[in-house]
Amino acid sequence: MRHVDSKLDIINQKFQEISQRIEQKVNFDNRFGQIFSQKIQPQNVNQNPSSSIDQLFKHTNPNNQYNILNSVNRDTIIEFRGFKMKAEVAVRFLELEKMIKQHFPGRQIIITSAMDGKHVPNSAHYRGEALDFVVEPLTIEESKIVEKLAEKAGFKVYNEYIYDSPYKTGPHMHIQL
C-alpha cells in the first residue's frame, strides 16, 4: 500500500507541475496580449505615418481602415500591400476594391505595380499616384464595368484588358489620380 501511495504522490506532484506551467503560460499570454494591444493603438499610428498601412489594417477593425488613412497626409508615400504609393491612392483603391467585390464576389483583386517597374516616361507611377491591378478572372466585358467603378472611385483609368501600351506586361487595369 505504501508503494501505491508513493506513486500517487508522484502523480499528484506531476499534476501540480503541469498546473503551474499552464498558469505561467496563461500569465505570459495575458502579458503578451496587453503589450501587443498597446503597440497597435491608433495614437501610435500618427508617430510613423510612412509605416506599412496594410500591416495596421490587419490589426484593426476593418471599419477603421479609412480613419487610419485619414490620419495620414494623403500625399505621404506609404507601403500598401507591399507597394509604395501615395496614401490617397490607397484610400481610393480600398473604395474601389469594395465596389468590385460587390459586383464580382469571390474574385481575387491583385495589385501588380505601383511605383516599381517600368512605365512610360513621366508616368504617374513614379510619383506614387498610380497603380496597376488585375481582377481574376475577368472578361473584357467585365473589365468595362471595373473601368466605370474605378472612375466612380475618383480615378482616371486606362483599361489594358482592352487597349495596349508600350510597357504592357499583360491584361490589367491602370488607375491614377
Task: Write up what this structure looks like.
This protein is of the alpha+beta class and 177 residues long. It folds into two domains: 1-39; 42-176, Muramoyl-pentapeptide Carboxypeptidase, domain 2 (2-Layer Sandwich), CATH 3.30.1380. It is built from six helices and six strands, in the order ααααββαββαββ. The protein has a four-stranded antiparallel beta sheet with strand order 3-4-6-5, covered by helices on one side. The longest helix is centred in the N-terminal third of the chain and has 38 residues, at 2-39.
Question: What's this entry about, in short?
Answer:
By secondary structure, the protein is of the alpha+beta class.
Query: How large is the share of residues in beta strands?
Result: 15-25%
Structural class: alpha+beta
What pattern of helices and strands is seen along the backbone?
HHHHEEHEEHEE
Write down the Rg.
Answer: 25 Å
Calculate the terminal CA-CA distance, rounded to whole Å.
85 Å
Mean pLDDT: 76
Question: Can you tell me the number of structural domains?
Answer: 2
Please outline the major beta sheet.
4 strands, antiparallel
Q: Give the total of beta strands.
A: 6
List keywords for this structure.
single chain; about 180 residues; alpha+beta; Muramoyl-pentapeptide Carboxypeptidase, domain 2; four-stranded antiparallel sheet; 6 helices; 6 strands; about 15% strand
